[in-house]
Amino acid sequence: AQKITQTQPGMFVQEKEAVTLDCTYDTSDQSYGLFWYKQPSSGEMIFLIYQGSYDEQNATEGRYSLNFQKARKSANLVISASQLGDSAMYFCAMRERNFNKFYFGSGTKLNVKP
Amino acid sequence: DAGVIQSPRHEVTEMGQEVTLRCKPISGHNSLFWYRQTMMRGLELLIYFNNNVPIDDSGMPEDRFSAKMPNASFSTLKIQPSEPRDSAVYFCASSVRGGGTTGELFFGEGSRLTVL
After folding, report:
1. DSSP string covering B8-44, please?
2. Contacting residues for B14 by C-beta, under 8 A, at least 6 apart
3. Interior angle at CA B30, CA B28 and CA B35, nearest 5
4. Is the pLDDT assigned to residue B99 strictly greater than 80?
5. Min Cα–Cα distance to chain A from B97, Å
6. What is the residue-averaged pLDDT of chain B?
7. Mean of the pLDDT values across residues A91-101?
8. Under 8 Å between Cβ of B4 and B25
9. Chain B residues within an 8 Å CB radius of A101
10. Per-residue pLDDT reduced to its tens digit, B16-43
11. pLDDT digits 0-9 by tens, A14-71
12. What is the pLDDT of residue B98?
């Protein structure tokens, strides 16, 4: 079974609007971490936001927030007030505490339209 | 602070040649990961080390691939002999395991390998 599932291969959003990128995960661990990374066309991987499995509050970092629904095993990334520079590939990832292994989803390519 | 440093950034070689990719993790990080990224297969974990010890190499595609971490500040990924299907971007990443940190991965800029 896939550990991380991103069901949206590509998405479009109008500049200045909000967008939600979906991510579901599969684990039997009680302790784990969820991460989102951005990969612009230049290729580098940029860490955006982290959510711990025991965190009760949704994580926020500037215009990024993580909509964490533990019972549904979902960790959607919300980008508010989209900017042209947000056009990139976005990866959801999970690290299970016991094995320290990072699992990545297949990514969502976001295009922000002017 | 210096990030994860990978070399070479670009490598073009001919089929059958040996390729060695190098990585210097961030000082103080105790976990190191090698990933391969292609359009077809996305990001694949090849191998990872904790405290210089290989923990899981189940992602290494074949015996042609090998990785070492002789000390905390250096790792290599070797392909011998290389094949055209090995063409990809190879990322090295490091993180801190434990210690109350979030433990996010810090990626290098990648090594783009083209095997002709």
Report:
1. -SEEEE-TT--EEEEEEPPTT--EEEEEEEETTTEEE
2. B115, B116
3. 115
4. no
5. 7
6. 93
7. 84
8. yes
9. 45, 48, 55-56
10. 999 999 999 999 999 999 999 998 888 9
11. 999 999 999 999 998 888 999 999 999 999 999 999 999 999 899 999 999 999 999 9
12. 64
Q: Which of B43, B102, B109 is nearest residue A104 as measured by Cβ atoms?
A: B43
Chain A hits for B91, Cβ within 8 Å: 45
The chain B residue lying nearest A45, using CA atoms, is B107
Task: Give the residue from B43, B48, B57 with the most A CB atoms within 10 Å of its CB, the best one to mutate.
Answer: B43
Contact assignment for A45 to B93 by CB distance below 8 Å? yes
Residues in chain A: 114
Quote the CA–CA distance of A106 and A3 in Å, as a whole number. 11
A59-79 pLDDT, tens per residue? 999 999 999 999 999 999 999
Compute the Cα dihedral for B101, A99, B68, A47 and give only its sign.
negative
Instruction: Using an 8 Å CB-CB cutoff, list residues of chain A that contact chain B.
Output: 33, 35, 37, 43-45, 47, 50, 52, 91, 93, 95, 99-104, 106-107
Of B33, B40, B105, B113, residue with least CA distance to B80: B113
Question: If you average pLDDT over residues B53-60, what whole number do you get?
Answer: 92
Instruction: Let me know how long chain B is.
Output: 116
Q: Do A101 and B56 touch (CB under 8 A)?
A: yes
